[in-house]
Amino acid sequence: MAMDYAETSKKIIEAVGGAGNIASASHCMTRLRLVLKDDSRASDEKVQKIKGVKSVIRQGGQYQVVIGNEVSNLFKEFKKLGNWGEAGSAPVKAEGNVVQRLFGFVSGCMTPMLPAMLGCGMLKVVLTLLTTFAGMSTESSTYILLFAFADCFFTFLPIFLGYTISRKMGGSAMLFMTVGAALCYPNLISLMGGSLNELGVFLGMPCTYLFGIPVICATYTSSVLPMLLMAPVMKWAEDFADRVSPNVLKSFLKPLLFIIICIPCSLYVLGPLGNLLGSLLSNVFVAMYSAAPWLTVAIMSAIMPFIVMTGMHYALVPLMFNNLATIGYDVIVAVTMFCSNIAQGGATFGVAFKSKNEETRSEGIACGISAAVAGVTEPAMYGINLRFMKPMIGAVIGAGISGLFCGLTSVRGYVAGGSPSFLSVITFIGGEGNPMRSAIFGAIGGVMSLLISAVIAFILYKDPEEEASASDDSGETSAVADTVIVSPLIGEAVALTSIQDAVFSAETLGKGIAVEPTVGEVYAPCDGVISTFFDTGHAFGLTADTGAEFLIHVGMDTIKLNGEGFTPMVKEGDRVKQGQLLLKFDIDFIKSQGLTVTTPVVVSNTDEFSSVTALASGKVDQQTKLLEIKK
Questions:
Q1: What is the pLDDT of residues 593-627, one digit of tens each?
Q2: What separation in angstroms does the CA of 507 have from each of 496, 497, 522, 607?
């Protein structure tokens, strides 16, 4: 059944804490990308259970909802339901370690450019086909004009990067783009391509002068690293210029100071440094590829799905551009993602051929076509392969073996085309000698990736119904059973719908009950495992042995205390027994901060049960039966 975009959008908004909790929203090829005001209000489990949602990823300060091919259609309805801005219109809060933040920033700058990048890249592919098979002359006016259409995005890439960087950092788009425009200015390009002067002979590289200070000559069209390195400088320069400019002069003095600071900085230091780093990266890549191409491509192909899961694959795009500009070909993105994407599709085909479930078969075929033909893997990855786990083993092995073959046969991508898939084989046409050699071996590698992953997935996969039946036959209990829990707190039980927090009272996170505690201690309401424990200590998740999943959240807005007043007695992953002390909290301190201690006890996987019923009201203790959950 077709997705109801409006209804799905409403459910997503409710599950992430309501429209008021969304600061900005955008989308890429497969993901709805949200910046939330309070991440703790979003329920990953609730979002994942919405029909049409493949997965949820929290990365780089964004709340990413994986939808798949239909995300652009869904976003048309989604943006009608709120007045939030486009993602990137304000600075995204930095989260994670330094590497995660860096990769998140790079991918956030590259992602918005994908439509133009793919469109112009595919036009270059068409030109390659026309000159290789249709006899079009590269001297003809038609070719020259079409090449200009195809190359315009890449030539002026620093300008586009200026825009996306400004949106990512909350800066002035026009000022940031001006720095990129300076690097692409025709007269500057001509000057930077000049001959060696006396200083250049001494330094061993072309040089010119700005204010009498030597500037290393380099060409920055189609470059990525110089503008990325300039990002913090541009942000600082704009803030500085705004701070020192009097209000009466700010309209012209602020942009003047920005340009005087940033453009010389890009020419003197960060532009040449970006080119140097690009050359070093290329040299490292060439050394690795020359020493062991089979190993380099095989490993990258096998681990690519896990890079895609984090959204970090977009951060590899600058490396692809750098390789195409410096050595004329790329394998890190073009070839390894080609092997990986087709393998994801192959594994879902294997599941489709094996499954006896009509819905799984239909979904497997659709996801397989999406991955292998269109290069969009999230539906296959999250909808089938990770969902059933064993097909992912087939995808990883198939991609690795295919990558090994492509590495041994020197398969290379010569232009930046569309999302890697069977259709992108034509981007492998090129190189010296036989221009079809790489494409032919690439096609063989693609077939290998598809077939190997499909066969392994077919062998390993079993329908959940069959596995459940086998489990029942062996005498084991089913994964989800009826559950009755006792109160985890001493106090007074109140209806969940009566508390003031809209997220809990509307049962957005699931059905349950709340307790107004009189003793600052939380005990295990049943046997199970601590599935999550917030760093701030104010809330934790408990998965019962019967399959019920509980969220116990001490107080409202207590995340603001940053852990003060809370003393966890267990940690994430611990197995606990009913009645075991899990958490201590200071009731008086929490109330002194103007916060309540009303504690919801919520069944976060409510949708997996036929009913969740409150059994208590009024005073409760550790022996009081609190909730009954029926499978």
A1: 889 999 999 998 888 888 888 888 889 988 899 99
A2: 8, 7, 22, 12
The whole-angstrom separation of Cα 154 and Cα 320 is 12
- Would you say 45 and 81 are in contact if contact means Cβ atoms under 8 Å apart? no
- H helices of 370-498, in order, are 378-380, 386-388, 390-408, 437-460, 464-473
Q: Please give the pLDDT value at position 154.
A: 81
pLDDT (tens digit, 9 = 90+) per residue, 16-25? 988 888 888 8
Put residue 135 in one of left, alpha, beta given phi > 0 → left and psi -120 to 50 → alpha: left
Which residues are catalytically annotated? 28, 553
Residue 291 has pLDDT above 60, yes or no: yes
Dig out the tokens for 495 from the structure: 């209806």
- In this model, does residue 531 exceed pLDDT 50? yes
The residues, any chain, with a CB within 8 Å of residue 439's CB and separated by 6 or more, are 425, 426, 428, 429
SS3 190: helix
Per-residue pLDDT tens over the stretch 314-352: 667 777 877 887 788 888 888 999 999 999 999 999 999
- Given a cut of 60, is residue 269 above it in pLDDT? yes
Query: Cα–Cα distance between 492 and 489 in angstroms, integer?
Result: 9
CA angle 205, 209, 213 (to 5 degrees): 100
Strands 22-27 and 85-86: parallel
The domains of the chain, with CATH numbers, are: 5-95 (3.30.1360.60), 156-288 (no CATH), 292-467 (no CATH), 483-630 (2.70.70.10)
Tell me what pLDDT residue 474 has: 47
Quick one: which of 183, 163, 128, 226 has its CA closest to 439? Answer: 128
246-285: b or e for each residue (b if 16 or more CB lie within 10 Å)? eeeeeeeebbebbbebbbebbbbbbbbbbbebbeebbeeb
Structure tokens given for 379 = 């539906």
* Least confident stretch, 81-85, 240-244, 525-529, 536-540: 81-85
What pTM was estimated for this model as a whole? Answer: 0.54
- Cβ burial of 626 (10 Å; 0-12, 13-18, 19+) is buried
DSSP states along 287-350: HHHHH-HHHHHHHHHHHHHHHHHHTGGGGGHHHHHHHHHHTS-B-TTTTHHHHHHHHHHHHHHH
Pick the more confident residue, 464 or 220: 220
Which structure tokens are listed for 70? 């239909």
User: Contact 394/350 with Cβ under 8 angstroms?
Assistant: yes
Residues 6+ apart with CB under 8 A from 620: 487, 489, 490, 491, 492, 493, 515, 626
Kindly state the average pLDDT of the residues 12-32: 84
Give the number of other CB atoms < 10 A from CB of residue 198. 8
From CA 601, how far away is CA 212, in angstroms rounded? 71
